[in-house]
């Protein structure tokens, strides 16, 4: 993953910390998990929100191809 992609995710994660529960980005089948999409580069980031301690945990980052990023996140839960 290149530096421009890392910077884009860093910016998006800063926004997520302010409002982590975005209904449109909720993932079915993964409890309390949401996604960040970088459409231009095709990357996805899956994160889980724990409200009790206000934790945003990044579970997986990768290309969308064959849903591997989502399968990795499911495995890590």
UniProtKB/TrEMBL annotation:
<comment type="similarity">
    <text>Belongs to the RelE toxin family.</text>
</comment>
<dbReference type="InterPro" id="IPR007712">
    <property type="entry name" value="RelE/ParE_toxin"/>
</dbReference>
<dbReference type="Pfam" id="PF05016">
    <property type="entry name" value="ParE_toxin"/>
</dbReference>
<dbReference type="InterPro" id="IPR035093">
    <property type="entry name" value="RelE/ParE_toxin_dom_sf"/>
</dbReference>
<protein>
    <submittedName>
        <fullName>Type II toxin-antitoxin system RelE/ParE family toxin</fullName>
    </submittedName>
</protein>
<keyword id="KW-1277">Toxin-antitoxin system</keyword>
């Amino acid at each position: 993953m290149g530096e421009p992609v890392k910077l884009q995710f860093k910016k998006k994660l800063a926004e997520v910390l302010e409002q982590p529960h975005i209904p449109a980005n909720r993932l079915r089948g993964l409890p309390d998990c949401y996604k960040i999409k970088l459409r231009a580069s095709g990357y996805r980031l899956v994160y889980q929100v724990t409200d009790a301690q206000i934790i945003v945990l990044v579970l997986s980052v990768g290309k969308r191809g064959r849903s591997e990023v989502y399968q990795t996140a499911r495995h890590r839960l």
